[in-house]
Write a structure and sequence with these properties.
single chain, Phosphorylase Kinase, domain 1, Aminoglycoside 3'-phosphotransferase, Chain: A, domain 2, five-stranded mixed beta sheet, five-stranded antiparallel beta sheet, about 40% helix, globular
C-alpha cells in the first residue's frame, strides 16, 4: 500500500522578519515531523539552506501526507529573486507561552551552540554542519559529525526532560552512550540497525532486553522519581483517566458510552486484581515498539526514553504487541510471560496483561490529552484526534459492566 505524498510550503523568516512563502516542494517522506527531506528539497530547488522551526497549517486533518506549511528560518541575503508570496494568515511570529525553544527564530542555533560547547568541554570537535533530522512539538533532532564519530543531539519539552537522566542511569549497551545531558537536552552516540519491520525470531531478544532493565529497577521507585520520571502507577492515573473521559465523552459513540463509563467505574477493582497478579511497578519505557530498538541481537539499544515512567511494566507488552501480526502478538505474550515469571516466580503476567488490555487505551488517551494541554495550538493537530481515537478504542474493548454510580 503506497503512502500519501507530502508537499512542504516554507514560510520564510529572518529573525523576527517575515519574508514570504515559497511554492510547494515535494518531499521524500509523508510524515510531518520529518525535516531533513524538507531542507533537502529547498536546497535542491533553490540552493537555499533553511532551518524548519515548526508546523503552521496542514491541508489534511491527520498524518501522513497533505500540504504542510512550516515556518522556516533563512539567511535573508540568500532570498534575492526567490518566488515568495505574502503570508495572509495569523502572525506566526507572535509569541506564545507554550512554544518550544527550538521552534522560535534563533532557537535551533542556540541549541546547537550548547551542544558544540558541551562537546568541546569533553574534548570532542564538531567537524561539519549539523543536519536537522526532525522537528515537532515532542522533539527536535540533529545529526552532528564529530571527530568521535556521528552523534545525535535531541531536545525535548519539559514533560520529557528526564530522558537524558534515565539514559545516563541505564548506560550502554542497553541504551546509546550519552555524551552530555541536562534536563531536556541529550547528546548521544549513533546506533545503526533499524528494526521497524522486525517480526518472528527477531522479537524475543528485544523483549528480554527490556525486561532485564525493568527487573533491575524493581523496588527503586524513589530513585526513578528522583531522576524526574513521572509517577504513572495505575492508582495515580485513575483521577487523570476520569478527567479525560469526562471531558471527551462526547467523542465516543452514544451506544458505547455506558460501557466506557462502566469500565472507568470498575477500575479500582481491576487495578487491585492486576496488583494481585504479582508483577511489580517499575521502570516502564512508555513507547516500546520494534522501531525504538536499534542494533542487532546481542547488541540491541533501546531508544526514545522520553515517555519513560514509573508504572506497570506490562503496559509495555501491550504497546509492543498491538501493531504486530496475530502470531507475533502471541509470541510476544509468551516471551513477556516467561521473562516475568523468571523475575518474579509465581506471578501471573498473562492474567495481568489480560486485565490491562482495556486499560491501555485509557492510559494512551491521558498521555495525548497531556500533550495537547502543553503544546501551542498550531501543533496540536499532531495529537488532537488521538484522545478520541483511544477513548473509542477503550469503549470498544470495554466489557459490558453495570455502572456503579451516576455521572
Amino acid at each position: 500500500m503506497s503512502m500519501p505524498g507530502r508537499e512542504a510550503v516554507l514560510l520564510l523568516c529572518a529573525g523576527e522578519t517575515l519574508l514570504g512563502a515559497l511554492p510547494p516542494l515535494p518531499t521524500e517522506l509523508p510524515w510531518w515531523p520529518e525535516a531533513w527531506d524538507v531542507c533537502a528539497a529547498a536546497k535542491a530547488r533553490y540552493g537555499l539552506d533553511v532551518v524548519v522551526l515548526r508546523l503552521l497549517t496542514t491541508s489534511v486533518e491527520r498524518m501522513p501526507g497533505g500540504t504542510v506549511t512550516y515556518l522556516a528560518e533563512v539567511d535573508p541575503a540568500a532570498c534575492a529573486g526567490l518566488p515568495l508570496t505574502p503570508w495572509d494568515g495569523a502572525d506566526p511570529l507572535a509569541p506564545h507561552p507554550l512554544r518550544q525553544a527550538w521552534a522560535r527564530p534563533g532557537g535551533p542555533q542556540e541549541q546547537l551552540r550548547w551542544a558544540r560547547e558541551r562537546l568541546a568541554a569533553s574534548g570532542i570537535a564538531v567537524t561539519g554542519p549539523a543536519t536537522q533530522v526532525k522537528t515537532w512539538n515532542l522533539s527536535a533532532v540533529w545529526r552532528m559529525p564529530t571527530d568521535a564519530g556521528e552523534l545525535w543531539f535531541k531536545v525535548v519539552p519539559d514533560f520529557f526532560a528526564h530522558e537524558g537522566a534515565i539514559m545516563s542511569a541505564l548506560g550502554p549497551p542497553a541504551v546509546p552512550a550519552v555524551y552530555a545531558a541536562e534536563p531536556g537536552r541529550t547528546i548521544m552516540a549513533n546506533v545503526s540497525g533499524s528494526n521497524f519491520d522486525a517480526a518472528g525470531a527477531a522479537l524475543p531478544p528485544m523483549i528480554e532486553k527490556l525486561v532485564e532493565l525493568q527487573a533491575d529497577w524493581i523496588g527503586r521507585a524513589d530513585e526513578l522519581l528522583t531522576l524526574g520520571l513521572p509517577d504513572r502507577r495505575l492508582t495515580a492515573e485513575l483521577p487523570r483517566i476520569e478527567v479525560v473521559v469526562s471531558g471527551h465523552l462526547g467523542e465516543v459513540p452514544p451506544d458505547r458510552r455506558d460501557a466506557l463509563l462502566g469500565l472507568v467505574d470498575d477500575l479500582p477493582r481491576r487495578f487491585a486484581a492486576i496488583e494481585a497478579c504479582g508483577v511489580p511497578d517499575t521502570l516502564t519505557h512508555g513507547d516500546f515498539h520494534p522501531g525504538n530498538v536499534l542494533g542487532r541481537p546481542g547488541g540491541h539499544a533501546i531508544m526514545d526514553w522520553g515517555d519513560s515512567c514509573l508504572s506497570h511494566p506490562l503496559t509495555d507488552e501491550l504497546a509492543f504487541a498491538r501493531p504486530l501480526s496475530e502470531p507475533d502478538r502471541a509470541l510476544a505474550g509468551q516471551v513477556f510471560g516467561t521473562a516475568w515469571r523468571r523475575v518474579v516466580p509465581g506471578c501471573d503476567p498473562e492474567r495481568a496483561a489480560t486485565l490491562l488490555r482495556p486499560v491501555l487505551p485509557l492510559l494512551a488517551a491521558v498521555t495525548y490529552a497531556t500533550f495537547c494541554a502543553r503544546i501551542e495550538p498550531d501543533e496540536r493537530i499532531y495529537h488532537a484526534a488521538d484522545v478520541g481515537d483511544y477513548l473509542r478504542l477503550a469503549a470498544t474493548e470495554a466489557p459490558e459492566l453495570r455502572r456503579s454510580r451516576h455521572r
